[in-house]
Amino acid sequence: MRQNHYLSPTLRDVPSDAEVSSHQLMLRAGLIRQTASGVYSFLPLGMRALKKVENIVREEMDAAGAQELLMPAVQPAELWQESGRWDAYGPELMRFFDRHKREFALGPTHEEVITTLVRDDVKSYKRLPMTLYQIQTKFRDERRPRFGVLRSREFIMKDAYSFDTTQEGLDKSYESMFEAYTNIFKRCGLDFRAVVADSGAMGGKDTHEFMVLSSIGEDTIAYSDTSSYAANIEIAPVISKYENSDEKESSLEKFDTPQLKTIDELQSSLNIGKNKLIKAVLFIVDEKPVLALVRGDHEVNDVKIKHFYNAQVVELASTEETIKYMNCEPGFIGPINDSQEVEIVADKAVQYIVNGVCGANEKDKHFKNVNPLRDFSVKEYMDVRFIQEGDASPDGKGTIKFAEGIEVGHVFKLGTRYSEAMGAVFLDENGKTKPMIMGCYGIGVTRVLAATIEQHHDEKGIVWPTSVAPFDLHLIAINMKNEEQKQLSEDLYNQLKQSGFDVLFDDRAERPGVKFTDSDLIGLPIRVTVGKKAADGIVEVKNRKTDEVLEVSTNELISVLH
Ligand code: ATP
Ligand code: MG
Ligand code: MG
Ligand code: MG
């Protein structure tokens, strides 16, 4: 490809709205441009790299026996009503009407569509198992799109779905996707870890996330320094911290409260989103345990409180509503004190301070429809906390360490959640009707690309792993006005292409400094420079990653590059 007429605009300055390296570099190297908030265009260089990732994903999916199909981005509301997710999914689902006033959504995921496809055409155990996948555009109206294509609203996902007749079958399908994912992320040159994840919202059981280790990752992983234990801290065990009070301990022991052992267990019965849990406070209320979780993404301003009362989420109410409900003066609902104790201010009031981080007495963060004394009285409280660095690993092997991770893939045993709701059944050997047992498996293809750059760059630019580089090499003619250099570089361009290399040929009439800076920024694995020694048939070959430089005679070039 000749760079002179190639849409690969590079930027010298770091765009002010790009906070992380991959976002900055994808803009600066001319891979992407923002079209709307969280919505991006891929320019030719970005598109080529994206295709490389897609092909790796496709090859590994095909090798695992999965079948590629393509489902629509536009999905009718009825499908989502059938599965029960139309109301449950919330504002991430982008909804709209057509001219006939029928309601639709832009697919954030495709369980509904795939389940109806398989339901309508597969009836017998003889046709199962099967795993189907697509590589397609998803839309999620993220609350806070950021970091470029790492968290965008429109993005490309590879999503696969398996259909089995038995639990053992599902285990096998899952295992095979797990292996394929491991191969994919290895081939992309990523340093990653598979971690046990949160199965709350999807209503299934086993689930793992594939996390690319990176300090900008939005998830935290707790892992053992000696064993294979690794979990998203969202589900890592909660450890109780009794402030050396025997009394508190014994009062807690009275309750049979297995749901307090892990967040996973708590969440499995509750449909809680994926925000990071940062603190939990346990209240003993009317001799029953009540756990208040203070949750947030990263910033304390975002903190929300979810309060579990007999395993029901207590909704939050606005200050205005609460004032009405309590029939009190507006000023009454204000900060109480810094105490960690639960305070009961009036018989109808609900006023908590939760560890001083965020309280129900903050503006618009009041618990709804909870009436102390009528609903409960407060007897005891204690702190519980999530597993921390330095704790013993839950598997008894080694010590817990923390790392930040970017979730690039997610594998999930769905079970019969969708097949039961949507009637995807088959006839077994004995002619009995049974729901299909499903799994779902996602990879954020555009996110993988950004995560790759996050792990592979230096101060000068991107340092592409060969497997996903948009071109194999960058051919540069230092001076296109010099007849010898021009001729030699044109010849080499043709020869290299004929030998099977993907070549980006900088044939622009730019100064050498500009060309080298752009070349480092774009970061192709190899640079071949045609300069002063062109007359002697000698070029320079430079390795972007190691900075190694070789002078090579043109008739040896191809063999050196191989
Ligand atoms: P996250 O926790 O980052 O919001 P998720 O758990 O909601 O992701 P899944 O529903 O598991 O995402 O989707 C499968 C994969 O799709 C994710 O592992 C991730 O790689 C990718 N993905 C999800 N949301 C986005 C997004 N907003 N932008 C880019 N990729 C995304
Ligand atoms: Mg997630
Ligand atoms: Mg999400
Ligand atoms: Mg996920």
UniProtKB/TrEMBL annotation:
Catalytic activity: tRNA(Pro) + L-proline + ATP = L-prolyl-tRNA(Pro) + AMP + diphosphate
Compartments it resides in: Cytoplasm
Alphabetical list of HAMAP family matching this protein: Pro_tRNA_synth_type1
Subunit relationships: Homodimer.
Function, in words: Catalyzes the attachment of proline to tRNA(Pro) in a two-step reaction: proline is first activated by ATP to form Pro-AMP and then transferred to the acceptor end of tRNA(Pro). As ProRS can inadvertently accommodate and process non-cognate amino acids such as alanine and cysteine, to avoid such errors it has two additional distinct editing activities against alanine. One activity is designated as 'pretransfer' editing and involves the tRNA(Pro)-independent hydrolysis of activated Ala-AMP.
Alphabetized GO MF terms: aminoacyl-tRNA deacylase activity; ATP binding; catalytic activity, acting on a protein; proline-tRNA ligase activity; transferase activity
Gene3D superfamilies from the UniProt entry: Anticodon-binding domain, Bira Bifunctional Protein, Domain 2
NCBIfam families xrefs: PRK09194.1, proS_fam_II
Name of protein: Proline--tRNA ligase
Similarity-based family: Belongs to the class-II aminoacyl-tRNA synthetase family. ProS type 1 subfamily.
